[in-house]
Design a protein that fits this description.
The chain is mostly helical. Helices cover 54% and strands 0% of the residues. It is built from two helices and no strands. The chain is elongated. It starts with a helix and ends in a 32-residue tail after the last helix. 0% of the residues are buried.
């Protein structure tokens, strides 16, 4: 390494600001991983309980009654886009 490179390496430091940025990014990543794992556990529980599927398949709703979002066609509808 040249003398200028050594001087530059010794003179440049991240300091407390850089440490705080890295610490906050690490905490944010840990928080995201925890929230994602909880969401996946909740999703697996809903699938296992049978509470995951199309909205229009509620058994307690009469067949002629349309609820919120009933004008949205289902994926398997025969209507062209």
């Amino acid at each position: 390494m040249t003398e200028a490179g050594r001087a530059l390496a010794l003179g440049v430091s991240a300091g407390a600001g850089g440490f705080l940025v890295v610490l906050l990014l690490g905490l944010a990543a840990v928080g995201l991983f925890v929230m994602m794992s909880r969401s996946l556990v909740r999703l697996r529980g809903n699938v296992a309980d049978g509470r995951f599927g199309e909205r229009g398949t509620h058994q307690d709703r009469p067949s002629g009654v349309h609820g919120f979002g009933s004008d949205i066609p289902t994926q398997n509808s025969a209507e062209p886009d």
